[in-house]
Amino acid sequence: MSEAALWPGGARGALNLTFDNLGEAAELEMGALPADAPLGRHETALEVLPRLLGQLGERELAATFFVEGLNAEIYPELLREIDGRGHEVASHAWRHEQWAELNEGEQAANLERSLAAFRQLGLEIAGLRPPGGQLGAGGTRVLREAGLRYCSPAGAGAGFEDGVALLPFEWRHLDASCVLPPLGPARKQISGSADPIEPVGFGTWLGAEIGRLTRDGGYMAIVLHPFMLDWLGEEQLAALLDRVAAAAASDEIWVASCAEVGDHIAAHPNSFGNGTVLDAASWT
Fold first, then answer.
1. Does residue 282 belong to any structural domain of this protein?
2. Per-residue confidence at 261, pLDDT binned at 50, 70, 90?
3. I need a labelling partner for 258 at 20 to 30 A (CA). Which of 67, 89, 101, 223 fits?
4. Is residue 1 part of a domain?
5. pLDDT at 3
């Protein structure tokens, strides 16, 4: 099958617009908040997400939000709103636990707890993005046994493994790579230097990468964090969303939720088998 025939409508490439983390979950896990801190007041949930949902709605863009299961207890109405606006809610562990540091039993228990909390809200979860980017001990088996259809680890190239679609993200397409010390190699890929990258440079880079996807085909996941949208800035965010919307309006790029792309891959496993190369790097 030719590259152009891989995706619906003859699109040359597929693109997922994704957002990771919500509320206090990751801060609690990293010890940045005391265990008895009052919950339910986080800026990303009360201010950033509502504004972002409006910006996505204006452009008729569907995104995937990888959120920690704890948010089903803290921000249930916000998760229902994300879903109700046509976006996908997916798993990012229970409290942003570093996935590769969990043994297989811990991964299974983490998933069970998270998926049960989401189901209480009427949300059926299709996929996981493992915090830290690595699959760890359970591999795809623990995901499949939990009923998940796809996973988005660190790596490159859409693929299909053991009944699970793989939708990897590349560190160079992740906003936090611009500033996190361990991800200097990703910055070198973007700018040729391990020095921190300014928002304008990152926005320009992503625009060029969308152009490359249009030209060469393949798969790409853009990874943004609500807590970093102030860093990115309104102007750069608007320009990026406009660029993704323009790609979605073209016949060259299929912009869809991760669940949609994962289901397409699962329906054509022979076209995507062994298509993923996992990346052992981590943001920690």
1. no
2. very high
3. 101
4. no
5. 43
Strands 150-151 and 127-128: parallel
Is the pLDDT score of 6 beyond 90? no
Does the predicted model carry a pTM greater than 0.90?
yes
Strands 277-278 and 155-156 come out as: antiparallel
What is the number of structural domains in the chain?
1
Does the residue 3 lie in any domain? no
130 within domain boundaries: yes
- Report the alpha-carbon distance of residue 33 to residue 41 in Å, rounded: 13
pLDDT, tens digit (0-9, with 9 covering 90-100), for 183-231: 999 999 999 999 999 999 999 999 999 999 999 999 999 999 999 999 9
Query: Which residue in 43, 112, 108, 117 sits closest to 79, CA to CA?
Result: 117
Alpha-carbon distance 79 to 76, whole Å?
Answer: 5
The token pair at 161 is 């493994």
The single-letter code of the amino acid at 218 is G
Helix, strand, coil in percent for the chain, rounding step 5: 50, 15, 35
Q: Which one-letter DSSP state was computed for residue 3?
A: G
Here the CATH number for the domain that contains residue 89 is: 3.20.20.370
How far apart (Å, rounded) are the C-alpha atoms in residues 59 and 55? 7
- Amino acid code (one letter) for 245: A
* Domain boundaries, position 266: 8-277
Q: How many residues belong to the chain?
A: 284
| Residue found by looking up tokens 């693109």 in the block | 15
